[in-house]
Design goal:
This is Histidine phosphotransferase ChpT C-terminal domain-containing protein. InterPro entries: ChpT_C (IPR018762), HATPase_C_sf (IPR036890). It comes from Thalassospira xiamenensis. The protein has seven helices and nine strands; from the N terminus they run E-E-E-E-H-H-H-H-E-H-E-E-H-H-E-E. It is an alpha+beta fold. The protein folds into two domains: 49 residues, no CATH class; 203 residues, Histidine kinase-like ATPase, C-terminal domain (Heat Shock Protein 90), CATH 3.30.565. The longest helix has 54 residues.
């Protein structure tokens, strides 16, 4: 009969120890290995296991290995996204520094240097805001209109891309709004000479982001990670955003499709 390490005979109900004993593992007389399971896991250690305890131990160790793999993947993504953010901020932050150096050489406040610093500082702030909404937890709570306004202001200041994100598309929940924001940011990468980006949100939940412009196209490696399963170890700072978008689409209950033809690209969530 199954007994507890404390010597009590627990009452059995649906395979669990219901005696209230928290002193140790439950094990069978013929299988004392169960006593080796840590008492720090009462939800596991108090399960009455009628087969081989080695199987249960292997299962627990297997879960631990999966957890370690998940942590390794998270670390890779953190490193790559951090590298991507730093890369995109080097330009405007470096320009601010250049303006400060010009002022230092002149010894007085120079209008041209001040203008450069002001413009570059605002650009860095806008990019940080987009990264905060796209990659950070803020994107799960900020309303979609604020996301649209943030990316629209960034494009307007840049002066190369026009964005049409209609009113229908700003009524969606923040989780899907964050998804659209990332789709728009990826679509911008496909416009080397600028162009137009149109966001369409249909009543059935289908979302499409179309980008049109001269030589509009996704890089082959970015297109690949958006279309196919790719191991995190194969990513780099240029492709991690596409990987992030694909998984974000799955997490919100849909799938991402990528379409390309001359001068036009489309990202579709359905």
């Amino acid at each position: 009969m199954p007994v507890c390490k404390c010597g009590k005979n627990p009452q059995v109900k649906e395979g669990f120890n219901t005696s209230g004993c928290n002193l140790g593992a439950v094990y069978t007389d013929r299988d004392p290995i169960m006593s080796q399971i840590s008492t720090g896991r009462p939800d596991v250690s108090h399960v009455l296991f009628w087969g081989s305890s080695a199987d249960l131990l292997n299962r627990i160790l297997g879960d631990t290995r999966y957890m370690e793999q998940d942590r390794a993947v998270e670390l890779i993504l953190i490193e790559l996204i951090s590298s991507r953010i730093c890369h995109d901020l080097v330009g405007p932050v470096g320009a601010v520094n250049a303006g400060a150096e010009l002022m230092g050489e002149a010894g007085v406040a120079d209008d041209e240097a001040l203008a450069l610093m002001r413009k570059s500082g605002l650009e860095a702030a806008r990019r940080l805001q987009l990264f905060r909404l796209a990659f950070g937890r803020a994107g799960n709570s900020v309303d979609t209109k604020s996301m649209r306004d943030a990316v629209a202001q960034s494009f307007e200041a840049e002066g190369k891309v026009t964005l049409l994100w209609d009113q229908t598309g700003i009524g969606i929940d923040p989780a899907h709004g964050r998804l659209v924001l990332n789709m728009v940011m990826l679509a911008r990468e496909a416009l080397p000479f600028g162009g137009d980006i149109v966001v369409t949100c249909e009543s059935g939940g289908r979302i499409s982001v179309n980008a049109t412009g001269k030589r509009a196209a996704f890089r082959p490696d970015v297109e690949n990670v958006m279309k196919n399963e790719v191991a995190p170890e194969q990513l780099d700072p240029r492709t991690v955003h596409g990987f992030f978008l694909r998984n974000l689409a799955h997490r919100t209950g849909g799938a991402l499709s990528v379409l390309q033809e001359d001068g036009n690209v489309a990202l579709i969530y359905d």
